[in-house]
């Protein structure tokens, strides 16, 4: 089942200064797509376009009617005056979640990510790693069909990273689709079904690792090898 269809002909922050062009792909149920590319390649602009944050965009972003998505930004964002639990309550109210199921989900996630003792504390006082885990909880608590995740591994220790990967694998098994931007290429190679490699605002390669290898003419290359082949402009 298709959960997201992206057709971006062009998007820019200012008129007549195109940032990304011809970004076309789809995300299916249970699929994890890795959005890969060097800094400034257009990954963040692609994500902002999907989220409807780019005023100057020519194209269409299609979600199934009634579907819910969660966005996990690269840098944790919190309301200064709300505790972690109050953040979850706020999201539950906005999304109209069933109160009983929401409470059970919130308690389970707090236990999993070992944040029970700080649930009623302001996230601004958390360490960077704790803030990142709190953002993961806020993304997971609504049980969305689609996750849009930007650099999730920043600030996570190895145990938290493993827990995050387990969590998204569980979500995929339920049918959720995930678009994940990351520079952690060795991990992406292991967990992603397909890859969207962008460079200079355009799709440089799209497909499975095997298909990416064929495009780059690197039959035994790793994702890291293909990334550098494209980033260095060797792909004609």
General description of the model:
The chain folds into 2 domains: 9-67 and 145-236, Rossmann fold; 79-143, no CATH class. The strands form 2 sheets. It has a 6-stranded mixed beta sheet with strand order 5-6-7-3-8-9, with helices on both faces. It has a 3-stranded antiparallel beta sheet with strand order 2-1-4, covered by helices on one side. It has 236 residues and is an alpha/beta fold. A hairpin with a 7-residue loop joins strand 1 (2-12) and strand 2. 37% of the residues lie in helices and 25% in strands. Helix 7 packs across helix 8. The two termini are 34 Å apart. It has helices spanning 43-50, 84-95, 99-112, 128-140, 158-173, 185-191, 209-216, 223-231, and strands at residues 2-12, 20-28, 32-36, 56-62, 69-72, 146-150, 177-181, 194-199, 202-207. The mean pLDDT is 93. The longest helix has 16 residues, at 158-173. The radius of gyration is 18 Å and the shape is globular.
Name its key features.
globular; 8 helices; six-stranded mixed sheet; alpha/beta; 2 domains; 236 residues; Rossmann fold
Structure summary:
This protein is α/β, with parallel strands linked by helices and 236 residues long. The chain contains eight helices and nine strands. The chain folds into two domains: 9-67 and 145-236, P-loop containing nucleotide triphosphate hydrolases (Rossmann fold); 79-143, no CATH class.
Radius of gyration: 18 Å
Low-confidence stretches: none
Q: Biggest β-sheet: count, sense, barrel?
A: 6 strands, mixed
Number of helices: 8
Across the major sheet, the strand order is 5-6-7-3-8-9
CATH architecture of the largest domain: 3-Layer(aba) Sandwich
Compute the separation of the termini in Å: 34 Å
Beta-strand portion reads: 15-25%
- Under CATH at level 1, the class of the largest domain stands as Alpha Beta
Which superfamily, in CATH terms, is the homologous superfamily of the largest domain? P-loop containing nucleotide triphosphate hydrolases
Helix-strand category: alpha/beta
Q: Estimate the global geometry from the Cα principal axes.
A: globular
Helix-strand pattern, N to C? EEEHEEHHHEHEHEEHH
In total, how many domains does the architecture comprise? 2
This entry's quaternary arrangement is single chain
* Average residue pLDDT: 93
The helix content, as a percent range, equals 25-40%
Q: CATH topology of the largest domain, which one?
A: Rossmann fold
């Amino acid at each position: 089942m298709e959960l997201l269809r992206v057709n971006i002909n062009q998007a820019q922050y200012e008129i007549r200064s195109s940032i990304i062009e011809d970004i076309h792909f789809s995300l299916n149920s249970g699929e994890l797509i890795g959005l890969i590319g060097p800094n400034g390649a257009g990954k963040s602009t692609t994500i902002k376009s999907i989220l409807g944050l780019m005023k100057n965009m020519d194209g269409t972003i299609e979600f199934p009617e009634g579907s819910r998505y969660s966005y996990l930004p690269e840098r944790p964002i919190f309301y200064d005056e709300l505790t972690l639990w109050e953040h979850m309550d706020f999201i539950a109210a906005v999304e109209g979640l069933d109160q009983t199921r929401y409470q059970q989900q919130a308690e389970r996630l707090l236990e999993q990510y070992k944040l029970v003792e700080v649930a009623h504390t302001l996230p601004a006082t958390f360490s960077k790693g704790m803030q990142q885990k709190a953002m993961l909880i806020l993304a997971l608590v609504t049980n969305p069909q689609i996750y849009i995740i930007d650099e999730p591994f920043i600030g996570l220790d190895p145990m938290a990273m493993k827990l995050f990967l387990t969590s998204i694998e569980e979500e995929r098994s339920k049918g959720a689709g995930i678009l994940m931007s990351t520079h952690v290429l060795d991990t992406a190679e292991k967990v992603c079904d397909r890859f969207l490699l962008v460079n200079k605002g355009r799709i440089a390669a799209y497909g499975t690792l095997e298909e990416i290898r064929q495009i780059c003419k690197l039959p035994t290359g790793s994702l890291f090898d293909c990334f550098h082949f494209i980033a260095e402009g060797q792909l004609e």
